[in-house]
Design a protein that fits this description.
The protein has about 280 residues and is of the alpha/beta class. It has helices at about 15-35, 55-60, 75-85, 125-135, 160-175, 185-195, 215-230, 230-235, 240-255, and strands spanning about 45-50, 65-70, 95-100, 115-120, 145-150, 155, 195-210, 260-275. Strand 4 (about 115-120), helix 4 and strand 5 (about 145-150) form a beta-alpha-beta unit.
Length: about 280
């Protein structure tokens, strides 16, 4: 049996710039991530990896009767989440933040009636243990929704060799940090192995070409920001040269101005219930 890799860091860092980017990302992807979530009857939801509160805000807005307990390992993220949500009068008293380890949740059995995990399992070394802990603290029959990356699906045209080289280094470094940039494809197996029932997965794709020119331009700008958010860490770790980063910037600018550009990417969303 192999020894689990230890999660040693977050590729994008915890700067104010990154925290603001996460809020914009959540809003940008809201129509895909939050489509028809099964939380209408939920009242006490556990959000694992709540980060800066970006997903929390959307959950509270979509479900007015919901109280969200968010767990995150980063005190910087939780401080930012408290500041962000504290400005929303309609969210007052509807959320709680807890700093903690997702593999050792400090809650008893039957503490929650629903759970939401978004872009968190990609950053942990033992996703099955996280899912097991979530299952332990949920009531029987609770709905669970997990959204995760599947980074092997990234495609960009015109051909952009520096961007692809950077993307491979990005994914390799995430694996070295103890994460898994391909965990989305594994969600079905992970949830079945953890004892969830009624497990379903749906591939949610962005296929943007000349039929969706405006959305393509917006998504390319968002994706460029996401890629560049990891540049400092990759450079410091010696995973890419500055010439690759500069080449990627040039390519992304060229793609952004190409009238026939194509962008494709998919993530996976799994839904299930506890026994």
């Amino acid at each position: 049996m192999s020894t689990p890799r230890k999660s040693t860091g977050y590729l994008h860092g915890f700067t104010p710039v990154e925290q603001d980017r996460l809020r914009r990302q959540a809003r940008f992807l809201e129509h895909k991530v939050h489509a028809s979530l099964p939380f209408r009857r939920a009242r006490k939801l556990l959000e694992v990896g709540c980060g800066v509160g970006a997903q929390t805000e959307i959950l509270l807005r979509h479900f007015p009767d919901l109280h969200v307990t968010g767990v995150d390992a980063s005190p910087e993220n939780l401080e930012h989440a408290a500041s962000f949500l504290g400005e929303l009068a309609w969210a007052e008293g509807r959320y709680t933040h807890v700093q903690g380890d997702a593999t050792r949740l400090d809650f008893g059995a039957d503490s929650f009636d629903s759970a939401f995990l978004c872009w968190i399992l990609e950053h942990v070394s033992d996703p099955q243990r996280v899912l097991s802990e979530v299952r332990r603290v949920l009531r029987p029959g609770s709905p669970v929704v997990v959204s995760e990356v599947q980074n092997a699906t990234f495609f960009l045209d015109p051909y952009s060799p520096n961007t692809l080289a950077y993307w491979m280094a990005f994914n390799d470094h995430q694996i070295e940090l103890g994460g898994d940039p391909f965990v989305g494809a594994k969600l079905g197996n992970l949830m079945l192995a953890t004892g969830y029932r009624d497990v379903t997965t749906k591939v949610r794709s962005f296929h943007l070409d000349n039929r969706h020119a405006a959305e393509r331009a917006e998504f390319l700008a968002y994706w460029s920001e996401l890629l560049l958010s990891g540049a400092e860490g990759l450079l410091q770790a010696g995973k890419v040269e500055q010439s690759v980063v500069d080449g990627m910037k040039t390519e992304l600018d060229e793609v952004g101005h190409d009238p026939n550009a194509v962008f494709f990417y998919s993530f996976v969303q799994a839904r299930a219930r506890t026994d």
